[in-house]
């Protein structure tokens, strides 16, 4: 096994501010960035704050920015960097820092609560729901989400624009609305909730100009933009400009 000494630069601080600190730390073959952060805690900086749980890319806890790119630290192999390269780790930029690499991601939980839940169809008992396999597969792609919030962190609409946060759900939650809007059994429309229109009017879908940065950083390789956001935009526009839909909504209002 080969071992070398890497140069790490880690953001240290809290809500009052902070700065980057330099560390020399041992790296072994096959290790990931989170291993090195743990070695730093064990040998040099026992008070370094970092959030993690599974170390397997499944809990979504260890999100941070490594050399400026939003990544899961447990899934970022040290072999992607050259041995001479300085590896800089900073907390996710779109969310307020709690301490060191830990951020307050409660913005995302607030946004999750703003999306109305699945509305079961009337007259169909639980256990008797039936769907085409193609519809199951469409939802399943979105259900792979591990809620790491890297997509939320990278989206330029909120990344440097705190002022947009109130009006914009972010890619993760627009994807959730798309999933429900495409769900053949969701009966929200019967209760007057047209999800695609609501995405546009209430959750800021119009802010998204399909830059696809969210898709690029998703560790689950979900096609957020192509399979959720663009179809949701199309559905919102279809509803707005389709004369039959427009007529139907006028008749229903009477
Ligand atoms: Fe993370 Fe992808 Fe889910 Fe966004 S969609 S929270 S990047 S797993
Ligand atoms: Fe943002 Fe993704 Fe749209 S990065 S602009 S939500 S395509
Ligand atoms: Fe669970 Fe990294 S520790 S995703």
From TrEMBL:
Keyword set, alphabetical order: 2Fe-2S, 4Fe-4S, Iron, Iron-sulfur, Metal-binding, Oxidoreductase
CC cofactor: [2Fe-2S] cluster; [4Fe-4S] cluster; [3Fe-4S] cluster
Statement: the UniProt record of this protein carries the keyword Manganese: no
Pathway where it operates: Carbohydrate metabolism; tricarboxylic acid cycle
Location of the 2Fe-2S ferredoxin-type domain: 6-93
Gene3D superfamilies, sorted: 3.10.20.30, Alpha-helical ferredoxin
Any Pfam family hit: Fer4_8
Family per similarity comment: Belongs to the succinate dehydrogenase/fumarate reductase iron-sulfur protein family.
Listed name of the protein: Succinate dehydrogenase/fumarate reductase iron-sulfur subunit
């Amino acid at each position: 096994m080969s071992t070398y000494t890497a140069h790490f630069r880690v953001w240290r601080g809290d809500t009052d501010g902070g700065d980057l600190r330099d560390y020399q730390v041992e790296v072994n073959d096959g290790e990931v960035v989170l291993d090195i952060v743990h070695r730093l805690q064990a040998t040099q900086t026992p008070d370094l704050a970092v959030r993690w749980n599974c170390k397997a890319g499944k809990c979504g806890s260890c999100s941070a920015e490594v050399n400026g790119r939003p990544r899961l630290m447990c899934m970022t192999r040290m072999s992607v960097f050259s041995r001479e390269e300085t590896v800089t780790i900073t907390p996710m930029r779109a969310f307020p820092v709690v301490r060191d690499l830990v951020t307050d991601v409660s913005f995302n939980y607030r946004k999750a609560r703003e999306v109305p839940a699945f509305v079961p169809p009337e007259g169909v008992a639980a256990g008797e729901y039936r769907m085409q396999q193609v519809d199951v597969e469409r939802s399943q792609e979105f259900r792979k989400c591990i809620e790491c919030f890297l997509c939320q962190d990278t989206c330029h609409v909120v990344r440097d624009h705190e002022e947009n946060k109130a009006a914009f759900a972010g890619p993760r939650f627009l994807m959730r609305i798309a999933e429900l809007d495409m769900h053949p059994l969701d009966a929200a429309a019967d209760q007057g909730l047209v999800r695609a229109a609501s995405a546009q009017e209430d959750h800021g879908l119009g802010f998204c100009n399909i830059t696809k940065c969210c898709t690029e950083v998703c560790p689950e390789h979900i096609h957020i933009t192509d399979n959720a956001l663009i179809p949701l935009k199309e559905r919102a526009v279809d509803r707005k400009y389709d004369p039959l839909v427009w007529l139907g909504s006028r008749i229903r209002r009477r």
